[in-house]
Amino acid sequence: MERIYADRKYIIIGFFLLIGLIFLVRLFYVQILVDKYILSANNNVLRYITQYPARGLIFDRNDKLLVYNEAAYDLMVVPRQVRNPDTSALCEFLGITTADFNLRLEKARAFSSFRPSIFEAQITRESYGFLEEKLFRLPGFYVQPRTLRKYTYPVAAHTFGYIGEANPDLIAKNPYYRSGDYVGINGIEKSYEETLRGRKGMKIHVYDVLNRDKGSFREGKYDTSSMAGTNLYSSLDAELQEYGELLMTNKKGSIVAIEPQTGEILAIVSSPSYDPNLLAGNIRKKNYALLLADTVFVPLFNRALMAQYPPGSTFKLVDALIGQQEGVITPDTRYPCGGGFSLGNGKQVACHPHPSPLDLIGAIQISCNAYFCRVFRAIIDNKKFLNTRLSYENWRKLVMSFGFGRKLGIDISGELTGNIPTPNYYDKYHGKNRWRSMTIISLGIGQGEIGITPIQLANLAALIANKGWFYTPHIVHAIGRKDSLNTEYSEKHHTLVDPRYFDVVIEGMANVMTAGTATGAKLDSVTICGKTGTAQNPHGKNHSVFIAFAPRENPKIAISVVCENAGFGSTWAAPIASLMIEKYLKREIKRKEIEERMINGNLINGKTIISEGGQGHILQD
Questions:
Q1: Beta bridge pairs of residue 309
Q2: Which of 67, 91, 177, 389 is most buried, most CB within 10 Å of its CB?
Q3: With left for phi above 0 and alpha for psi between -120 and 50, is residue 51 left, alpha or beta?
Q4: Domain assignment present for 3
């Protein structure tokens, strides 16, 4: 009997445990699963509306707002919910035909019948009010709030970049993005995408059969909040950037200005350019196609980072430093010039008339080709190396320590490396062990196979100003708050040339402005140290090149200017650079005559409104 009572006890206990378990399962089902079931089963009346965050704002170094957001709206469609829409009203509003409407709807259905997709992107806030009134006649359609980028100044388009819809490859690689999301395509927008984009949120709203919003589902229980993107404080000086683009009107080329002591970019101009507002909103596709189709002026091409030129006579500064470092010249070394440097067989590297012989400072001041051909020959024929190849490899290593032949690592997408040719290139072109210093003598005056980008030229001016070191040039000064410095660019890079060799080069650059090849660009109130260059161009007129920094003591700005097909560096690039220096240091221009000539100068297609003969008082370079 005791065993029977014990069995009954366990049966009763088990029964109550089973009842308790059933209640627990039911409670879990009611509180957890039912809501999720409702969300799934009622998908035809629930809308999952992504809350897109406002992208971070972009300011200049003086706290001027450069890039901000403006409200816009995407017209979304869920194909399965479309029920006899008033297509005529919608087609009239969008400016499309019924056939276009059906085609768009089929594309959306091919993507997903249940998931929303964009039917019309970035409708302006002005048009939104008109559309909102018609939504009740468009079941299956709704409006998704967005923002689009707007620009306070119509400048720096290549630097800011633009945003566009995330492509399938990015969506496949990065789970953050979904179809219809926007992402930075290039420029700062791309480089700092994760900082600027913020974090998306989600709201679930209930809509009735008349496509009317009935409010949040379950009082927002399943909603998540978005988080705005982080603001960026750029190093750009908006006023200087705007002035640089004005000076480069009707010219092909670039201006890059850097603060030597920090590596921060003050202005970066690529010309011809375009208004960045042209690539914002639903006009972007049309305007991008037009800009892309312009193969004459190529406005989408960022010349400041991607164009590669022979540096011309500006490169003589590098060989002057390397020659001293290698001990093959001193400041007192003199070389004669009889109108050029003889290559034998009646050929020579020509040079303009000037006093001869010259020491190193004089050679920089006058830009003597013969002098620097001899310097380069002495470097390559240096007896401490067993052969030409070894001495050339040493020269190339020293040159690359100046930031040439590689990407500097600027925080804007698209930078190219330039080119400092390898020994293997000359082996292939001339034959192994069949080339000598005289074979490649043009490198000594910045010609031949050398390719330098404008950002690298500006960096050269900055590192000479610093007597042998530089920070990686960069655009973003601070992230989040102005005092929250961008520490990614705080490492000093040193050249392989001893700092003591820079003083004589700087003295020569100062003389360029007072008694040399750029006297027409001097600024009486500020000591500018500069160097002119004329980059040979096999496809047309030579390019005008100039680099400089100022003031000589405690430099505040280093700059490079390239004007394509403009001739001598003294004629166009040097005056433009000196005006930029005056604008930055003095904030106003007193040399109005030079300013007017530079602004009105038209160099497009090699035509000028000012004859070079009018610059006869300026020496060639």
A1: 452
A2: 67
A3: beta
A4: no
Q: Looking at the whole model, is its pTM more than 0.70?
A: yes
- Among 383, 425, 417, 378, CA closest to 400: 417
Residue ranges of the chain with per-residue pLDDT less than 50: 30, 34-36, 38-44, 606-620
| 23 occurs within a structural domain | no
Number of helices (H) and strands (E), helices first, in the chain? 21, 20
Sign for the CA dihedral angle at 304, 596, 571, 359 comes to negative
Question: Which of 458, 438, 456 is closest to 448 using CA atoms?
Answer: 438
Which of residues 211, 234, 257 is at a domain's end?
Answer: 234
Of 175, 226, 280, nearest to 49 by C-alpha is: 226
Residues 6+ apart with CB under 8 A from 621: 312, 313, 367, 517, 518, 532, 533, 534, 568, 569, 570
What are residue 77's DSSP bridge partners? 117, 141
482 in any annotated domain: yes
Do 331 and 220 belong together in one domain?
Answer: no
* C-alpha of 576 from chain center: 22
In a domain, 559, yes or no: yes
pLDDT digits (tens, 9 = 90+) for 427-447: 999 999 899 999 999 999 999
Q: Which of 218, 234, 250 is the last residue of a domain?
A: 234
- HEC per residue, 315-380: HHHHHHHHHHHCCCCCCCCCECCCCEEEEECCEEEECCCCCCCECHHHHHHHCCHHHHHHHHHHHH
Q: Give the C-alpha separation, 550 to 523, whole Å.
A: 10
CA 377/CA 361 separation, integer angstroms: 19
> Domain range spanning residue 64?
53-234
408 and 542: one domain? Answer: yes
CATH number of the domain enclosing 77: 3.90.1310.10
Distance of alpha carbon 17 from alpha carbon 597, whole angstroms: 96
Amino acid at 590: K
pLDDT in tens, 557-605: 999 999 999 988 999 999 999 999 999 999 999 999 999 999 999 988 6
433/539 same-domain check:
yes
Closest CA to 549 of 538, 541, 557: 557
Residue type, 48: Y
Exposure on the CB side of residue 211, measured as CA atoms within 13 A: 21
> Does 242 share its domain with 229?
no
Strands (E), 411-567: 469-471, 476-479, 492-494, 529-535, 543-550, 557-563
The β-bridge relationship of strands 543-550 and 557-563 is antiparallel
Query: Based on the domain organization, do 181 and 114 belong to the same domain?
Result: yes
Contacts of 531 (CB under 8 A, 6+ apart): 313, 314, 316, 317, 364, 367, 509, 512, 518, 546, 547, 548
Total number of domains constituting the chain: 2
Evaluate whether 438 touches 420 at the Cβ level (below 8 Å): no
User: Do residues 309 and 426 share a domain?
Assistant: yes
CA–CA gap between residue 580 and residue 591 (Å, rounded): 12
Q: Quick one: 540 and 396 in the same domain?
A: yes
Count of Cβ atoms closer than 10 Å to residue 98 Cβ: 11
Question: Domain containing 251 — which CATH number?
Answer: 3.40.710.10
Please state the separation of Cα 452 from the chain's center in Å: 17
Say if residue 331 is exposed, middle or buried (CB neighbours under 10 Å; 0-12, 13-18, 19+): middle
